[in-house]
Amino acid sequence: MVHFLSVDDVTKEEINKIFDIADDLSDSKSPIKLSDGSVLALLFEKASTRTRVSFEAAMAQLGGSSIYIDTKTSQMARGETIGDTARVLSSYVNFIAARMYNHDDLVELANYSSVPVINALTDVEHPCQALSDLYTVKAAKKKLRGIRIAFVGDIANNVANSLLLAGAKTGAEMILIGPKGYHPDPKYLTKAKEYGPVDVFTDMKEGLSDVDVIYTDTYVSMGQEAEAEKRHKLFAPYQINEKAVDYAKDDVSVMHCLPAHRGEEITSEVLDGPRSIAWEQAKNKMLVEKAIILHLSEQEL
Ligand code: CP
Ligand code: NVA
Predict the structure, then answer these.
(1) Residue 206 Cα, ligand 1 centroid: separation in angstroms?
(2) Which CATH architecture has domain 129-282?
(3) How many CB atoms lie within 10 A of CB 268?
(4) Whose CA is nearest to atom 3 of ligand 1?
């Protein structure tokens, strides 16, 4: 793997290797460090709390460092091209993690970069989130093969696309539940179906029957603010509340990539309740991001 722009940039074997590195990292008796004073540039066009801070803390704990660049205060805001920015940044740092609106801009950044580029979220994918989330599912359910994961709500968004591909690739059964007209891009559905079983539902009760994991995300992703009113109306029947949880298995786990909009896509009762693993999920982001960095560094572990 040269860059990590999409879940499709990693094989199932690489995902397992990343999970093994994460397991080794959680064993505090054998702290793994980056072999040199590596630097990660975080080039962000969109807001972030978890991804930014977890990558920065990850680099510090691995013995490296990081530099956060808000594109609004960089020369990109004054018209410097993505290609020129990538050429220069990659001559200073060892990795670039970028959060961008347009996925093609991220691809362009990678094309001009001489160091690995990591997708820290675009409009269409959030692959670090997906790998970290499946690591959390594996920890909670002791396996991934045959685990039924239902993504509910905006099943066409970036988090859904990446989880769909990564879940199907690692042997989970993927279930998508959302309103008609907002179903995933057929490109993602077709790819995921090549890896494993995928079912799409519009009905909550039908879709949630017998699922092991319920996953939800905001109705309005960053960049979709103009559609907020329409989206709130359309997705309201897909709220994860006690009734929705009751449709699933008794030991169902509830996940949310966060930030949550309490009372919208999920109730506080569920997010703070006994079925929620959203907080372990957030914590695991740093561990899996460290593993992704170490995997990309290609150093002997
Ligand atoms: N889940 C996630 O990516 O959160 P941030 O937007 O806070 O980084
Ligand atoms: N789908 C959300 C995820 C935020 C982490 C967004 O893109 O805003």
Answers:
(1) 30
(2) 3-Layer(aba) Sandwich (3.40)
(3) 11
(4) 51
What is the predicted pLDDT for the residue at 31? 76
CATH superfamily, region 7-125+284-297: Aspartate/ornithine carbamoyltransferase (3.40.50.1370)
Domain ranges in the chain are 7-125+284-297, 129-282
pLDDT of amino acid 29: 65
| Residue 192 CB coordination number (10 Å) | 23
Q: Residue 279, Cβ neighbours under 10 Å: how many?
A: 12
pTM of structure: 0.98
Task: Tell me how far apart the alpha carbons of residues 144 and 159 are, in angstroms, rounded to a whole number.
Answer: 18
Q: Do domains 7-125+284-297 and 129-282 have the same CATH topology?
A: yes
Q: CA angle 161-266-147, nearest 5°? A: 50
The CA dihedral of 50, 55, 60, 63, to the nearest 10 degrees, is 150
Q: Is 91 helix (H, G, I), strand (E, B) or coil?
A: coil
Cα(48) to centroid(ligand 1), Å: 5
H-helix segments, the chain: 12-26, 50-61, 82-89, 103-112, 127-141, 158-169, 186-195, 204-208, 228-235, 242-247, 268-271, 278-297
Give the pLDDT confidence score for residue 30 in this predicted structure: 62
Q: Is 50 in the pocket of ligand 1 (CB under 6 A)?
A: yes
Predicted pLDDT at 51: 98
How remote is the C-alpha of 95 from its chain's centroid?
Answer: 18
Mean pLDDT, contiguous 10-residue spans, the chain (301 residues): 92 97 84 88 98 98 97 98 98 98 98 98 98 98 98 98 98 98 94 97 98 98 98 98 98 98 98 98 98 92 79
**What spacing in Å lies between the alpha carbon of 30 and ligand 2's midpoint?**
34
Secondary structure of residue 215 in the 3-state scheme? strand
